[in-house]
Amino acid sequence: MSNLPIYSAMFRSTAAHSSIRIFFSVATAASMIFVVRLLGPEEYGKLSLTLQIAVTAGLILSWGSSSTLGKFLPEIPAVPEQGSLASKMLGWILVSFALFTAAFLGLAAAAPALFPAELRSAKTLVVAFAGLFAVFNWAQGTFRGIGKFVGWSWMEGANDLTARLGALGVIVWISRRYDAVLTPFVLALLFWTALASFRLKPYFRPSGFRMPPNVVRYALLMLAGSVLFMAATTLDAALLRGLLKDTSQVGYYFAGVRIPLILLTLLLSPLSIPFLYYFSHQDTFHTRERVYEMGTKLAGVLCGVISLLFFTLARPLVVLFYSQAYLGSVAVLQIYGFVLFLVSLQIFSGPYFAAINKPHLSVAMMLLTIALLAPLDLWLIPRMEAAGAALANVLMLTAQTLVITYLVLRNRINVLRTVLTLMAGMILSVALELWALPYSSLPAFLCFVLASRLVTRDEFAKIKAVLLHKPEATA
What is the pLDDT of residues 342-376, one digit of tens each? Predict the structure, then answer.
């Protein structure tokens, strides 16, 4: 196995990054569970909608800097040139934020009826959060681009945790209003953005705004992708709020999806950061096809098991975490749990498309997301309320996963058998539990995977070798 030292180094750095993310994600999730319980569905729905809009605005203002800098900085050998590119990107962000602030506050004053009441009441906090989040994304891209994604994990995790702990403190000792709870999110982001910027002082090298054309094109593509992604993730909440006029349904929805999203954050989200670096770096890019194929198998099986646990145990999980007040979230969790499984089958596609200089494929997938999700939401939400939004996401991601599987097949990666086998096993297992044997879906899925011989003995041996390889053996 000639690439064993490379695979081992990738595994160890990714494991370190993921372990830090897991620690902070578990702590953050635990604190957020208390926030959800104490706020109740209505106030939590207002907080979720406001935060979602603020994050969307911040991501747009960041100009795709997280992905752009993560892609191009590893290709630049010297710190001065890296700093020049990072500083130019930061200049774009700051100018955009100034224009956004003037436009948003001006429009809110001139035409307040255009904004939901919860957004109008917290408009200053929303603007502040959006600007800080944009700079925070810039810092993330810079840390990623210079290979310090493990160090960034500490900073990002600490920001998430301190924000939630601050929110919990506000609820317990000050107020249970959503806008008061939003304040510690802004203050935590301010502190950690300032600290990240201080750590990146060597990379502050102002040299104007002009960037290489290929970087500009990539940044615009990433911006388009970010806009589409956040539009897709905000669409459910916006339509729930607009079609049903009930903030409680927004609360039920976000409470139900939070549990799968915690696992997605723990298991899958950390993978995109190191693998964009490894898929792009000149010393490791030749391993990306094999890593993609094997990683999809392992992620699909693991996340399939977890999704079926959500499907079977949704009611006791909701009552345990949120109390009886959130029984409206049970159906949401049962359905949305399968999002974790579907995302696992495409988690490596974003870093891979970026590494082979085809980011437009990721943007195309976001367009597909909007094209599918909007009509599905409009059809299902009036009929199923919050659960309809969850089902719309599952149907959309199923179609998206099949399209991505075809696209990566056209680009030298064959995971078709893996994806179709795991999807077939999932459908059969769920059908068995729904119409024949309660609590049978998980054992049925595992039996199906073993019978299909999806992971061969040789692959098990290679996985074992990677896990046991000692870095000292690397020359």
Answer: 999 998 887 778 777 787 787 788 888 888 998 99
Q: Find all residues with CB under 8 Å of 335, minimum gap 6, and list them.
A: 387, 390, 391, 394
Report pLDDT digits (tens) over 247-270. 788 888 988 998 898 888 777 765
Q: What are phi and psi of 94, to 5 degrees?
A: -65, -40
Q: Which amino acid is at 98?
A: A
**Secondary structure class of 391 (helix, strand, coil):** helix
Helix (H, G, I), strand (E, B) or coil at 416: helix
C-alpha to C-alpha distance for 290 and 7, rounded to whole angstroms? 10
Average pLDDT, the chain: 82
Distance, CA of 19 to CA of 24 (rounded, Å): 9
Indicate the angle between helix axes 4-61 and 149-173, nearest 10 degrees.
50
Which residue segment(s) compose the domain that 406 sits in? 4-473
Q: Measure the CA dihedral 280/229/361/25, to 10°.
A: 30
Domains held by the chain: number:
1
Which residue has tokens 């800080």?
A: 132
Decide: residue 406, CB within 10 A, 0-12 exposed, 13-18 middle, 19+ buried. Answer: exposed
- Ramachandran region, residue 323 (left: φ > 0; alpha: ψ -120 to 50; beta: rest): left
| Residue 303 binned pLDDT confidence (cut-offs 50, 70, 90) | very high
Token duo for residue 457:
């003995």
In the structure, what pLDDT confidence band is assigned to residue 475 with cuts at 50, 70 and 90?
very low
Task: Evaluate the CA torsion angle 95, 98, 102, 104 in order and state its sign.
Answer: positive
Rounded Cα gap, residues 206 and 464, in angstroms = 48
DSSP 76-115: --SHHHHHHHHHHHHHHHHHHHHHHHHHHHHHHHH-GGGS
